[in-house]
Every structure is written in C-alpha cells, then in structure tokens.
Design brief:
alpha/beta; Nucleotidyltransferase, domain 5; 5-stranded mixed beta sheet; two-stranded antiparallel ribbon; 9 helices; 44% helix; 15% strand; globular
Length: 201
C-alpha cells in the first residue's frame, strides 16, 4: 500500500462516484454488452439489467459469465436502456470500473452496433473515468520489472487479497460491487458486512 493510493481512493469516495461493470459477448472489436450494472458509493443499485446484443453470445463467453442467448432473448437492447444509462454516465461524478478501458470500449461498441452516436457519454467516460484495477495494482505493490509498472491483479485475486467475499463474480452487478468494495478497502474503509445484491430485473 502507498499513501498515494489511499488518498486517491478517499478522494474518489468523497466525490460520490458511480461504480459500473459490463459482461460481454467477447473481447474483440465486435463484442457487445449483454449485462450491465451501476451502483453508487453506498452500494445502492442504480442500474442492473441484461442487454440483448445484436450478435449471438458465443459458448466461450457464456462459460465465463453464464449468460446465454436464451437469457437475453427478452432483454432490452442498448437502444432501449440508453436514456437511463446516458443520464447516469454523462454527469460530472467519477466513473469507476475495475478494467475501465474495456468497459468503456464495450459501451461504445454496443451503441455503434445499434447505429447511434455516443459522443456525450464518450466524453464523460474519458473525462471522469477511473480504473480501480490500475489503482489497486499500485496499492498492492507487486512491481513488474520487465514492464516497469505495477503488476495488474485480477478482480478475484484483489478480493482475496483484501479478504472480501462477494458471490456471483463475472456478473455485472457483483463485479461493480466488487470494484466499490476494493476502493473502500484501499481508502481504509472496509465494510465488515456484505452488501445485499438486489434481484435482477
């Protein structure tokens, strides 16, 4: 742990951040969101929904998060949830995700797949985006001499290292909550009791 990461985590929490996560159809340039969630700094669920992508969900992606084409058959598209999503993301509050650049790219790719522009949200996701994974890498302090940077820790490893237990990892709501709990731990404000996870809609 470094004093820098503790002060940065505390500053983030002071600014009332939003924590978000996405689950997707894959990792490449055509992958889309199939699950998205946003929680606030107190753990309140602001958005939690499956999303019907424009492409099928490959079996290898389903093996990671457990979401299949049948699960999203009746889910809203990114177009349908966009007004709510954009209203949450386009403000001035810090936006925090564990692998922030990936989640930002997936939001943009999903919108592009449905043929609409994301300029306002892209701007917010650039100006107010914070990566909990990069901050935690410095906090944990495992130096990668070859890359000359702090070694990234997986979300599961970070939770284990901080003694945090969250069920249902690799679903958007659980992972968004995991990012929140890791930032709390870095700030020296761990929560002793698990935060209830609201039912998915």
């Amino acid at each position: 742990m470094t004093p820098n990461t503790r002060s940065l985590a505390r500053a983030l929490l002071t600014d009332n951040p939003l924590f978000f996560d996405t689950e997707t159809t894959g990792l490449d340039s055509r992958a889309e969101i199939c699950d998205i969630a946003i929680v606030d700094a107190a753990g309140q669920v602001l958005l939690n929904t499956l999303v019907k992508p424009a492409c099928p969900i490959p079996p290898e992606a389903s093996r990671v998060h457990g979401i299949t084409d049948a699960d999203v058959a009746g889910a809203p598209t990114i177009t349908a949830i966009w007004p709510e999503l954009a209203a949450l993301l386009a403000g001035s509050r810090p936006l925090v995700a564990y692998n922030a650049s990936f989640d930002r790219r997936m939001i943009t790719q999903s919108a592009n797949a449905r043929g609409f522009c994301t300029v306002l949200t892209d701007k917010a996701l650039v100006e107010h985006l914070h990566c909990a994974m990069l901050l935690y890498a410095e906090h944990y302090g495992d130096w990668n001499y070859y890359k000359r940077s702090w070694r990234w820790q997986s979300l599961g490893d970070a939770l284990f290292q901080q003694g945090i237990q969250i069920d249902g990892l690799h679903r958007a709501l659980a992972d968004a909550e995991a990012a929140r709990r890791i930032v709390l731990a870095m700030a020296g404000q761990p929560e002793d009791l698990p935060v209830p996870i609201a039912e998915r809609r």
